[in-house]
Amino acid sequence: MATRSGNVGSEQTNAQEQMVAGSAWMTAGSIFSRILGAVYIIPWSIWFGTFFLQGNALYGKGYNIYSFFLIAAIAGVPSAIAKQVAHYNALNEYGISRKLYGRGLVIAIGTGIVIAALLFFGAPLFTGGDPHLVPVLHSLAWAILIIPTMSLTRGYFQGFQQMAPSAISQFVEQLARVIYMLVTAFLIMRVWKGSWVTAVSQSTLAAAIGALCGLLILGVYYWRRRRYFHSLVRQSDNALVVPAKQLYKEIIAQAVPFVVLGAGITIFQLIDQYTFAPIMHAAGNYSAAYLNDLFALFGVNANKIIMITISLASALAITVVPLLSEAYTRGNQQEISGQLTNAFLMFEFIMLPSALGMSAVARPLNIVFYGHAQEALGASVLAFSSYLSIILGLYTVVSALMQGISQNRRAVKYFLVGTVVKFVVQWPLVYFLGTFGPLVATGLGFLVTCYLIIHSLNYQFGINYVTIAKRTNGILLASLITFGLARIVVVLGGTFLGDSRVMSFIVVAVAALVGGYFYVYTTLRSRLADEVLGHRAAVIRHLLRIR
Hints:
Layout: H1 2-39, H2 41-48, H3 52-74, H4 77-90, H5 94-121, H6 133-159, H7 164-191, H8 196-224, H9 226-234, H10 244-262, H11 264-283, H12 288-330, H13 333-360, H14 362-370, H15 375-404, H16 408-433, H17 437-461, H18 465-497, H19 501-525, H20 528-533, H21 536-543
Helix pairs in contact: 1-7, 1-12, 1-13, 2-3, 2-7, 3-5, 3-6, 3-8, 3-11, 3-12, 4-5, 4-6, 4-10, 4-12, 5-6, 5-9, 5-10, 6-8, 7-8, 10-15, 10-16, 11-12, 11-16, 12-13, 12-15, 13-15, 13-18, 14-15, 14-19, 15-17, 16-17, 18-19
């Protein structure tokens, strides 16, 4: 019995270390990509000048539609592949994993072609009456031809717990995209004095340029590691024979729920995009341009920044799925319960200080990215959205947890309940709260979904709430003090340095350093980080010379 307990403890420790290592790579890739995807807006907004809010609204509307089509094109196949590859790898059936990747590639290429054609030729049907959206959607369709194959290959690497290729390709993809966006925006708007619609269209075409570069990076990684993959296939048990037809069925059965759940945030954004203006027209006599500006504030500007913190949760979610799938395949209930508890703790450890810290610096941060256009309202929306990001990040994690234990249908059902809540409260909240209405409605919808999923996970596997509550107290206290320190820096900075873009950047940087250092130092010194990150916390503590 003692030996068995030791084995279980060893398995849980190893799983936690895998989760931390994988999360580190995926978090780094996601956060650097998101930062790049947000920082470009500073020169971009300057070069667009008075057309910035209109251009950003058009960019955001195009990307919302594109994101939905992209999720349909990818069809959840990458995450499904990662899950199924991990499942067969746990059974030492690496040959089937390779066949699974090949069959998934056929599906990804086929759906990419079909969905790209649908978006390109059907663009006028999805504009909601805005003709400027047509060239934007045409340019985005090209990315859909490439991204499914790229995402599928990332899923294959993730199934082997190899997160570095995904993270690095993600960063390269974003870097190439941003460079193309900025070069074309500068040439069109400042050198050639061209149309802002043309500039936005080229900025969205950058998605295809970035995807191509990301795919090339993955190809290089696969080529370098091909002997390793081949050796695993040769050492497989080959005890299972899975026909191609069954592989296709497994991919599709696993992928469809990933489509719905993966598109969750995008679906809510599309609800806002198509209902906000009609509801506001009913509430008052507002011009279309003014409502476009408001939509840009909450649906694009704030969303672009909070996705930096939400990407942290997304990185964790991607890491958890194959690990949970392996534990579920082995039928190890105790390991599943431990991983669920670790996942929630890691989510809190990362998300709470990030979201509270962002809300503390909302005003200067908003000025850094967007200048003084609608400054007061923009800062308030960003602060509120920062709190909302905790719920959105939690949804990203818990939906991935349900998929990791093959509770796909139940997760979709709970998401649909949350969507109904969003629809029911959308009209009265937008009518009475205006710009904040869609955000409150989104928070309520996802909160219901998260509650239902967490309740289900606890009922089936048991979540160690005592451990979570104990750790949460320390994380929350450190996060609140971090928030307070950042706020003090913001108030003092605003008083003595002013609110220009450069001064605001200095204030944000100092606030982030002061608050971030306090949080890192406190959690490492108190050993709270050890209980979440494992032995790696000791390594970090040694590097930072904290006793």
